[in-house]
Amino acid sequence: MVDNSAWNTLLQQYVDEAGTVDYARWQREQPTAIAQWISRISTLELKSQSVDEQLALWINLYNAFTIDKILERYPIRSIRPTILGLPNWFAFLLFFMDRNRSVFDQNYSLAQIENQILRPLQEPRIHFAIVCASIGCPLLRNTAYEAEHVRQQLEDDADRFINNPNKVRYDAQEDVLYCSKILKWYRKDFLSVAPSIPQYVGAYLKQPLTATTPIVYLDYDWSLNQRISS
Fold first, then answer.
1. pTM, entire model
2. Whether residue 195 is found in the same domain as residue 90
């Protein structure tokens, strides 16, 4: 069983209830703490893991790797850097694609963890749990995911995300559903458990939405999910 206590303590120290991270204080006080936790758990044997154990482990690792990447680069304003005012798409993609994080004697990228490990577990609610350190992402949970209740944690994450009007909202007068682009980018995953995106989110919004409900996808905010300690 993975001991997440060190990771949980870090989240409690540096992440608030709104999911924003005090990167400056974290970088100043414990810049190597994530690497130390990952090094300790890397000695574990994972061959007999259940699906719930895999979910908890790799969601925690994805989020830990993301924060660790930010701590290396901080201070930054966004994970999407710019050159002369234009988005630097190469650096942006490299953030997700570079296999520069090691655990269990292998190197991983964020994209690899998401697309080759987590998504095949067929749990679409992971998209409300894994974070890319931007405001447009799901709110970062300030406690570790644990195998024994990871499904309930994911359900809570989904409910929190969909009932956040900055991410999803339904305008009954216009009959228009406004959604985060996460529901567009990973549409296939959500449609594996629901007949349509409006019907998927409608269950959380307590709205009788139908497959024909028009959808407008909101602009995605790539600004860093940071807070500044006083």
1. 0.96
2. no
